[in-house]
Amino acid sequence: MHILPTRVLSLIVGTLFLLSPLAVQANADDPNGSRNSPQPGWGLWRRKAEIAKADFDSGFSNSELGGYLDFENFCTTNGGSPNTQIDYWFRLSNSVNRIGTGNVEFGCWAQGRFLNTYSSTAIKKSLSNVNCLRVYTPNKKSLVIWAEPRANSKKVGVVANRRTVKPESFPASIVEVNGENWIAIASPKKGWVSDGSSASPGNLRLCSLKNP
Length: 212
What we know:
By secondary structure, the chain is an alpha+beta fold. The chain has helices at about 5-20, 20-25, 60-75, 95-100, and strands at about 45, 55-60, 85-90, 100-110, 115-125, 135, 145, 155-160, 165, 175, 180-185, 190-195, 205. The chain is elongated and about 60 Å long. Mean pLDDT is about 85; it is low at about 1-25.
């Protein structure tokens, strides 16, 4: 078996470390990394101090409120030494601005990594209600309405591209099945329509938004 010299091994390991995305993340001043680019389906991480001007609301159930308190407690009790600087960040999924409902993820950041994260439902706060979403499928095809949030359930209707649907509630009722987000609607037929994956452009958008 051929054994590489120690100096060569050190150079190889060092090069791999520098090329690793984790290395870039760990050396960054914030969770967005040195390139300051968001993860597909999400906006950039923002500091907790910006929550007031971020136009969103969250915590719509006791379980979500309790989950956030557990998240904060974990951050404060697992932050290492008392002198460790812990920064709190948040980010919003793109669907919050696109359809009025999505997710907010909170994270506590220390020494180049997240100690813990917590995600819950979020809405666009400036919207008092959302009763109209317009279909904009990437392929410009009609959107099928299904009886259940899955494509092998009963087909109950079709919505043509650029036509509208009414969500069943606000925040919208969204269920993820096999990486695909399904939204409950009340009309034109009661059922479920697919909004695609979280990283996709989605199949729906607020009727008040300009045409893409």
